[in-house]
Amino acid sequence: SVTIKGSNNIINGNGDNMEELNYVIGSTPAYCCVAFKRIDGLNVSGIKFENGLVECAIVLDCRNITIENCEFNGSLYDNGLSIYNTLYNTTYHEDDNSTWTNAIVRNCKANRCMDFGMTAFKTVNVTFENCISTECGNDSSNQVNKGGGYSAENYDIERNSMTNFLNCKAISCKGRGQKWNKRNGAS
User: Fold this and answer.
1) Residue 79, CB half-sphere, CA atoms under 13 Å: how many?
2) Does the structure show a pLDDT above 70 at 89?
3) What is the largest CA-CA distance in the chain?
């Protein structure tokens, strides 16, 4: 288990000073303010993540996650917050909750992120509650990721399941705004 609690603490990825670096797809954790990986019992509250070259914060292969009262500001190439995969990249089964992601993101804000403000990929049982994404996404024809406020996306044959957005707002977002795929179980 990992717990990080702050009060007005800022983790600055200095992405605005690193634009000369080549962003290589598949190397995302190296380009984030913080990458949390392979944690069962992650609790983060009261932290501002700013200026990630790619993402402000990424949560990889984790389970039992609570992120509260955090901000994700100014990701230059991708999302403010990404929750990606289940614990240890385990193949999940809908009837076995020990393989679920089990995450709640509550009272968080994402501002000026190039792609989505907050997103979940290949996860099970993720809830975004009382969150706000402002000025996320883009209209650039050169940007692969158009983004917007929120996303629950699937990759290849694996899918998201039980992704919920409760009382969330997307304000002045571009690209796709809020995106989810009901066929794949998100709501």
Assistant:
1) 23
2) no
3) 46
